[in-house]
Design goal:
Order of helices and strands: HHHHHH
Largest sheet: none
Radius of gyration: 16 Å
Helix content: 55-70%
Number of strands: 0
Shape: globular
Strand content: under 5%
Distance between the termini: 30 Å
Length: 153
Amino acid sequence: HAQINIFGQQAFIGGFIAISIIGYMTKSFDNLLVLGSFGASCVLIFAYDKSPFSQPRNVIFGHLIATFIGLFFFHFVSQEWWSMALALATAISAMILTKTVHPPAGSNPLIVFLLAANWDYLIFPTLIGSIILVVTALFYINLHKNRNYPQYW
């Protein structure tokens, strides 16, 4: 019970720090770094840091691949509901194929369609924001003597 409480507190603080950095940088530099799926990424990274889904490769490339596919389908296939569904299905398959599955990134194609995002969305917020999450986790999780992040790259 005590271990669950400790990790719950660490997940709370880690998520708070990561999203605070992203929120502050969004406001300070007038560049969008907030991506809705980053909230779910924080759950995995800070509460389940040993999970394969939480490792840096999965976080960064999962987000990048899913967003890229969403943008591709939105801009080159169609802006209709069926294209959004096909983008999601393709993103899932691509993450599995590349061994970069990060479940929160599965929502990125849907977010792209809902926002009618442009190609710069791949860099801001997707790439830069996911790197901030991973770097925050590297510093914060490794402060605890019994935790080690990442398990692999």
